[in-house]
Each structure stands twice: as C-alpha cells, then as structure tokens.
Amino acid sequence: MRRKVAVIGGNGQLGSDVVEAFTQLSEVFSLSHQDVELSSIDSVVGCLRALRPHVVVNTAAMHHVENCERDPERAYAVNAIGARNLALVTRDLGAVLVHISTDYVFDGEKGSPYSEYDPPRPLNVYGNTKLAGEYFVRAGNERHFVLRTSALYGLHPCRAKGGRNFVELMLKLGNERGEVRVVDSETVSPTSTSALAAQIVVVCDTDAYGLYHASAEGSCSWHEFACEIFAASGMKSRCLVADPGEFPAKVLRPAYPVLENAGLKAIGLNQFQDWRAGLRTYLHQSCRAVA
C-alpha cells in the first residue's frame, strides 16, 4: 500500500514543492484553506478522518510579520491552536505530523548560530505564536518532526506576501532601477523551498522524531543576499547598503537568528548545501543563472 501524505497549505510556496517531492513515492493530498480551517478542530477532524493519511505536513501559517502584530488573536488561532488541532487529530489517527516552524523563535542576541538546545525567546507576535505551535505539536503527538527554517524562497508564489519572494523582488527592482538599497542589519540563512521539501521527505523515511533546525548552510545579511542574486544572475545593477533608518522596521525582528542544523547532522540526515548553491539551483530552475 502506498503511503498517504496530506500537505496542509499544498498550494503555497513551500507546500507546492512538498507535494512535488512526495508525489513519486506516495499518494499525496494537497489541501488548501478551502479544504481545511486549521483553527477549527471540527474542520481538521472532518478533513483528515476522511483521508486517513499516514503523514501530515503542515506548511500553512500566518507568517506575514506585520499582519500578525496587527491581529495577534488570528495569528494565535492559526499558528498555535491550528498546530494543536493537527497534533491531536494526527495522534488519534496514528499519523506522523511534520510541522514547519521558524528561526524567529530566537531573539538573535546570541551572536552565533542557534542549535536545538538553545532556549527560544521570540521578539514578536509571529515568533511567539509559532513557538506556541511547536509546544502544542511536541506535547500532542509523539510522532512528530518540528523543523525550524529560515528566509524561505521558491519557484511558487507566496500569496501572503504579495506573490513575490526576495529573489524575485531584487531582480525586478534591479532591472527597473539599475540600483537597489538593501538593509544589512539582519543576518539569515536563505533557504530554498525545494531543498527544504527534499529534507522533509528524508526525515519522513525515519522514526527519528523530534525538533530539528533545517536551513541552508552558512548565512548572510539581506544586502549580501541581494548582491549574490545579482552576481549569480549576471545582472549589472548596483547593490548598496541602505542607510540606518532608511527602511525602518515596523516590528521588532531578531538581528542574528541563524540556525545550526545540529540535530540533523548528529543523525547523518542533513541534506542542505551552502545558501549560495541553493540560490544558483533556483536561478537555473528559473533559467536566469549565469552559465
């Protein structure tokens, strides 16, 4: 019997790649918000009991940081209560739950990459609600994988953020203006959704349940990322560091929430390459890389 995999948010930026990654070896159900409302236990029960999946991958979240700050109740309902509902229902069905979380559970003040053993301390509503979701998953279903990741971008549009990821935004602005100004005050590990999807498939073939960091190797500022985007795509646009306060943040964000994939490396399952390699793969896939 083929394994049944349900992907919550299967029409999203990450979810679309997860669906594709599982399709060859599994029977995959791509579920959108029209199919299941995570904040409603009745909706989650009705949807998943009908499908009876062996694995549920939750890529859905309210992850627009400013919107979370404006509507914390909705953010908690989706990111925390939604995760709890999935944990309880998948436990009752005997299914594995893969839950995607974020580097924003950390305050970024450590000054070096965070491992899974470092205590979280979120700075904003988004980070707090995602951390609450982690705890609900870890308490609600022993057969879980909680994967924290960073600065996702992928070939499929992220509708919650206007449909254009950071790479596409930089290419658009560079082409239109010939010059971009980008902040260098936050360091991240830009991670392609295809790489994360491949990692999810790998961990789901094991029973090494638990909490893992799952982001591209290495790190850079947003400015460094933009410069590399131009270099790797052959674009001649200038990439300048924005002046302090030029693009003031509307919400407090961690300055250095870089993740170390210590857990995956400890069990020999880390699949991630350096973030530059991930970027070049993305640009090749979209036929815009320098040959």
Write the layout of secondary structure elements.
Elements: E1 3-8, H1 13-23, E2 26-31, H2 41-51, E3 55-58, H3 65-70, H4 72-93, E4 96-102, H5 125-140, E5 144-149, E6 152-153, H6 166-177, E7 179-182, E8 187-188, E9 191-192, H7 193-204, E10 210-213, E11 220-221, H8 222-233, E12 238-241, H9 262-266, H10 275-285
Parallel strand pairs: 1-2, 1-3, 3-4, 4-5, 5-10, 6-9, 7-12
Antiparallel strand pairs: 8-11
Q: How large is the radius of gyration?
A: 19 Å
According to DSSP, the number of beta strands is 12
- Strand line-up in the sheet with most strands: 2-1-3-4-5-10
Please summarize the sheet with the most strands.
6 strands, parallel
What's the CATH first level of the domain at 3-156 and 190-217 and 257-273? Alpha Beta
Features:
Rossmann fold, 291 residues, alpha/beta, 6-stranded parallel sheet, globular, two-stranded parallel sheet
